[in-house]
Batch of 3 targets.
Target 1
Amino acid sequence: MINAALVGIDFGKTDFEASLEELSLLAKSAGATPAVTLTGRRSSPDAAMFIGSGKAEELRLACEANDIEIVIFNHALSPAQQRNLERALGRRVVDRTSLILDIFAQRARSHEGKLQVELAQLQYLATRLVRAWTHLERQKGGIGLRGPGETQLETDRRLIGERIKMLQGKLAKLRRQHGTQRRQRERTRTMSVSLVGYTNAGKSTLFNALTKAQAYAADQLFATLDTTSRRVWLGDEVGQIVLSDTVGFIRELPHQLVAAFRATLQETVQADLLLHVVDASSAVRLDQIDQVNDVLHEIGADTIRQVLVFNKIDAVPELAARGGTVERDEYGNISRVFLSARTGVGLDALRAAIAEIATAEPLVEPSQPQAAADWSPLSHEPSREPEHGR
């Protein structure tokens, strides 16, 4: 473990504290120990160092006093800001995007997952080559180093561009293979159900409980990166369905990752039903629901029928008694199920809900997913105001 300093600037967003707590979890997931946390308020980022020269000096002193090896920002930094901060602090500086990419690189297990992560990393790196190669902004020269007229920077850009094209080609081939598999399921009329949700909401635990699989599940961010699919028997009337466990979403998910993981996320886009797993024990569950819906909209999956699955109710006294409860919207469609994947309470209710949806047409066509503010799972939680204490 290396000591890290976490930096978060409040620009007036209401979820600042939750976002900072999430940064700490991300840092721990990447293998760092948060030893210092620096916060501040600004109306807008400083163009040169994001936090301003005064805060940068305060951060430098804190780093020296606490033996800090790396500084992690809870924001996206420009290449110039990152370079200026590293010069001022004398330490490596990474932003939120780079941190998430690093975690993905550590967790990718399948061939496809590794390809997707490498593509995302190269696309991110391509925008930062100037920072990485400022000391080589000259023609190659010297004995044995006389090149064909390219600078080191141009050479790297060309090599990275070629590698990106190669990875995109491989992922396109995998995407076609996924399409063939989906068409096979369509020919056999097998219902496809995808688990989606915020990272660490308990999707993999629920997947294992429903399928008796042994997919990796842990209480950490991004425990699952690779899509895993299993067949589940729901009785003679329904037969088998295909259930898929997908990568978790997070606020400000890097666009490079959304683009790179599009092949994996196609399982979500092509699903017949989305089970949107929500961590009922999270104090910011409503914001997390909206964040997931934003990503679903970005990948074109926002029109697929969705059922909210409130998981981890065993950790919420107000919800523990609602295990197995199935709620419906004003049209009679199943909209919410309350359960605990860990204890098994409510799993039968979820199976029955999936079976009902599989065998009956909805009373109305599903529309855009409801925003979290449009409803509340608790009787004393009528709006966002009590949720965030505003």
Target 2
Amino acid sequence: MSDARFPAMVFASPRRLPKAAELEGRVVVLDIAFASDNLGKGFDKTTGRFIERLGDRLACWVDHHDHPRHVDFAKDERFVLCTKAEHGACPEMITPEMVRNTGPIDTVVAHFDLDGLYAAAKWILGGKEPYPGADDDARCVDTRIGEPSPKAQLVDSALRAGYRESGLLPLIVRWLVEGQPKGAARERIEHWAGEYARMEANSKTIAARYAIADDIAQVTLKSGDGPFDKTELLLLGQKLATVAVVSDQGNVSIAAPFDSGLNFVELLDLGGGMPTRVNIPKKRLPEALERIREALRARAG
């Protein structure tokens, strides 16, 4: 059972949502984008079904990712939705008034990145930042614009290496809520941040294979590449060209700087998601590259 200070915490992604029946009591959903209509099962079979099955137990849904179905919920006060351009991160959307008006909740469902964990911590704290500047840190990390504090860099590194590690995500939220004390929790976070340092080094090795043409940097992963961080690999590609493309056997990740003016969701007809970082099936890569080249030429004037 959850307690008054710490509700049950479940971490998810747009296409990997928990079963509504397994969630305790009233539920708040933070930093979980609506599923893209043109990828996977789409909105109706994922997000829409999840909302329907939660029913009145859904207390609030706060998100900042672009999606055309936001308009369907404009009159439902439980949904606080905006675009990435309006809010670079989710925590800054959460206010004491929002938490107070929502009332008691039993479960927090949050995205498993820093943005989602910081949003969860802020909600548990009644709409107060876990430390001064935490909202700014979340925005820096989620947009990759600016320099996050050492504390945020520590958490981000730990998450990028250990987000699949059992118990790490709720431990980080509790650590944030409790004032980031020294001790076992911080030591565990530091351990995973150390693991990330090795992944980061391997990402740089892979990045040496980037091929650049038409302001697009492309690299294909190999079976023997070993552990790496895709976010870091994409960022390294963006130092070489405006658009970075990382391909594996069946999927492609495409990214550009937050302030690039590119919107891959619209450009590739994806029907929702983060405008400057998307994933597509590899079979769509030739078509996607042509559209991106056209957009880059238009951007250049």
Target 3
Amino acid sequence: MIRSHLWIALLSISFFIPQSQAIELDGTLPDSLSKWYKPENKRQVWLHTMFGMRRELQAVEEYVDQKDVSGINKWSERLISHYRKLPVMVPEWEEYVDLDAVDALEQAVKSSEFKSIRFNLRQLQKTCRSCHKENRILATLQYRSPDFSSMVVTSEGKERKYPRFMKTISRTLNRVRIAAEDEHWSTASDASAQFQQELKTLAKNCASCHKDDEPVERILGESTKHSIDQMDAAIAEKNIRSVKMSLGETAVKVCARCHGVHRTASDIRGQLFVQD
């Protein structure tokens, strides 16, 4: 269920929405929408329908400017077909759909009335903006943002919830800094070794969503390994200044980069969509 009266201003931190455009999130997404997103729908038909319509609207606009009847016919046929499917796919959103405008667009295309085509395209675009204003952020958070709360990490033969495992990594990294500052160099070295093992475990978990190597490489690749090697060398040399520098670089490359992409959206998702 969506927690009521949660201001979209909170989301502006991540989505850069001006405060003057703040709206109140109060309601729920229709149940039928879930049929068109993962995990119920592997093809994510609703999402690709939206992408298709955006492309089709642009194509018709550009061909109208060129007075290219063939191009208008081709792309408007696709647009009209997709648009008419919307209230069938999600009946609860029928109020956003203007079937009169799409009928008028179809007639204007048949008679090559360019002025009327432009007008009815704008009418359809208004309905898109209206629905997006009220629902797109919620749909993005629910269906396209990560839900780490249900993930499980297997480490040393034991299963741990993802949030608890991430807290463990944070504590391990802090232990390196604490031990180094207090000149407990053996403890700092052991904590660094533990941190590296935890990162390897985390990398395996990342692969459950990221099917290609590039995202994992960016966070946990050679650049990160170089920073960790520098940290280990500084610990061996008992050089606290170098430990701090290399540890800071490691935290930016691993923690900040990953959190900047995933954590904010995930945290907001967790606040909005909570179980009864």
